[in-house]
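Chapter summary example: a protein plus beta-L-fucopyranose.
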Amino acid sequence: MRKWIVLAALAAKGICGYAQNAPAPYGALPTKAQLNWHEMEMYCIIHFGVDTYTNKEWGFGDEDPKLVDPLNFNAAQIVGAAKAGGFKGIIVVAKHHDGLCLWPTQTTAHNISKSNWKNGKGDMVKEYQLACQKLGMQLGLYCSPWDRNSAYYGTPAYVDIYRKQLKELYGNYGKLFISWHDGANGGDGYYGGSREVRKIDRTTYYGWDTTWTITRALQPSAVLFGDVGPDVRWVGNEEGHAGETSWATYDPQAPDAGRQPANGYTKYELGVEGTRNGQHWMPAECDVSLRPGWFYHASQNSQVKTPYELLDLYYKSVGRGANLDLGLSPNPQGLLNNEDVTSLKEFGQLLKQTFAVNLAKGAKLTASNVRGKSSVKYSPQLLVDNDRYSYWATDDGKTTPQLVLNLAGQKTFNVIRLRENIKLGQRIEAFTVDAWFNGKWEQIASATSIGANRLIRLPRNITTTKVRLNISQSPVCIALSDFGLYKEPVHLEKPIVGRSLQGEVSIQTTAPVSAIHYTLDGSTPTKSSAVYNKPFILPKGGLVKAIAADGNKQGEVAAVQLGLSKATWKATTLQGLSERNKPAYAIDDNPNTIWSTLQPDTAQAFTPAELTVDMGSRQIIKAFTYLPRQDKRTGGLVDQYLIQTSMDGEKWELAVQGEFSNIKANPVEQVVTFKQPVTARYIRFKALHVVAGNGATAAEIGVIVN
Ligand code: FUL
């Protein structure tokens, strides 16, 4: 032991006989700010503002700041809940697309001082900063470039205003870890009263190069997040996952060649994988909200992601070398709801439980090659010291080494963790892991990129005494800093609630369990709730909550809001019928079949489309639902709509007209609640505008009656 320490000290000083130069760095490398960002792994983004009070996802810009009155606003409650979840920082949305600044800015009158909150004397950003300081959390800020309030939006004057806003935010709220710049841009808005459409060229209008110099000067330790960096790139979806293969390096490229200027990128078509050997170190951030929307909507209180759903996202983001940015949505009182707080806390406990003990610790590690004649400086022993930058390295040219771990006795695990010392770049391209069963090696896992972090969640528990790591592809010698084996606690998956075309509700689990319990009154099911044993009819729909139970264990709650049964519905459309344009696809309770009026001739312009439903009898309709296509394609996603109702199918009345904001990035079910319930037998959905393509699409439409 003593000898080892002495050798290590000598090697570190470079005076030991077999000390050897460190491996040459490979490819693009992270900056200091990016290293800090990687180490954080997870943070939260907080959306609160006029939308919290208008029940929208994007405000138009004409909202009265007086709407905002969070009587119990408590930054420490929000930041504390994030901390309990294991998150290392928060990003405050200081200004969203509606333009209302949550700090008392000098740049526009449209700010928090015009609200009644704290008699116009409050500063929300400051309160978050103080809460972060107190709780040891890092702070980041989001200031939307698109501003639907500003009269100047679209002119050079606005760009100056925007830069002044950033300067205020950079100068008055301490050290930031990230400056977050969303990609939603231009369109209709209030714009100082002109209420018009303003289009900008997103590649040139904002003059980002000049803006970034402000960030670099005032917040040198912050990373810059944007759709294509420059420091952190958007992963390309708002579902919280990176690609199975995920490179931290990236070469931004124009995905829509021909449609966009040479260096113009759209937010939605970026590679979730990054670029192998890309020129820039630009890792992916996976943003996803704890609820379906980014802002608080009471109707989504039962749709808060469960701790295990969050854990799953953790594996698919942080576990793929990206970071997880989880959206939190304070309610109109200015607090996180209890269900949100509980889910965060339990997720934090789950993470701690899973990663508390590295079962590879105490193992004897034998490598096929260690750099510098087995120098202790690059010893495989360093893989289990929980230090991201101490590492096992091989000699130059040794690119496919093996490592055998003789575990300290028999161990049971279901998660494998690997990390590279990314200060030397992202090197390894593929590897496999074997376990020793009955006298021979059997492959239990394989993966590609590693980078800052790679987690492999195994489909079953592995009990063994020996594990082998085989690096199968790397352009240069390796610099691996971590190898861990962990045991995630077993859990019962939440049941899947579905409804057939005939209107029968079924509740299932993928693995056998001793019982499924459910409720229909909104209460949380327990083992004393009704036992599910066969499909049932729920003509008016309602909230179905279900749990799986096995022995003493009970799983997480599945909560599904079913609309009125569509068993008796008939749908028609004015647009000529075709193979894809089958209105029945929109009312078959099957999200995989899509009603589509898209025309194959892509040169053809968009024509508004409509779908009319005869529900068979009169209903008192409270809300309308639109489930956009779920196949990741954007053609025909409706972002402006109109809904009419009728008693007889002849005389129609307008029920509501509006916008499905952010549907392109976050295509979740849209619920349009009517101002007052409407009695009708017929309902018509008109697509006035779509995100892309020349027609409309819908996976499902529905109505809520109770
Ligand atoms: C997007 C915005 O359009 C959404 O409203 C939300 O703020 C999300 C985090 O970023 O660009």
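Key point: Residues 181 and 368 are 46 Å apart (CA to CA).
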